[in-house]
Amino acid sequence: MENGVDKMRCPWCMGFQQYIDYHDEEWGVPVYEDNIHFEFLVLESAQAGLSWATILKKREGYRKAFADFDYKIVADFPESYLTELLSNPDIIRNKLKINAAVNNAKRFMEVQSQFGSFTDYIWDFVDGKVIDNALPNMKNAPATSQESDKLAKDMKKRGFKFLGSTTLYAHMQATGLVNDHLTSCFRYEEVKLLAK
Prior knowledge:
DNA-3mA_glycosylase, Endonuclease III, domain 1, 196 residues, DNA-3-methyladenine glycosylase I, 2% strand, 53% helix, Adenine_glyco
């Protein structure tokens, strides 16, 4: 097994070390910091139509291109820089997705000013508690939920782009609003202990 350790993992992460590390260290860990939420929103909106593995491989490119995911800087990206990004091979060169990241940075700050933090806003959709789906296998894993539907509807109303219910459910999984590690996965119990 990877790293010489015989551990049961969610099967989707097998393939390359970066994916395994992401699963073992980040995925499903409850996030209470706005900057990390913004990073995942940028990456997940870029993923639309692509695999998460593709985005993970470009994550460092995104970090450099998007000012270490500083939403205040991203919100003020000049048009000339956005044009430059279209020729950057280290990110997904899609004009709509790049523009969406800038738009979403502005909307993100509007949410912060209304709710105090984006964290407070998004955790309210799960009543401040991690949803534990206790999944026995991948075929039981949902792609959306009532909560992600409500979140997507609300965020769309607020002007966010490229963040539908499926994308936002993936965000909720990644940032630990939902624990969708399989019950057989070594991270399932570990992640459960991290919830506030």
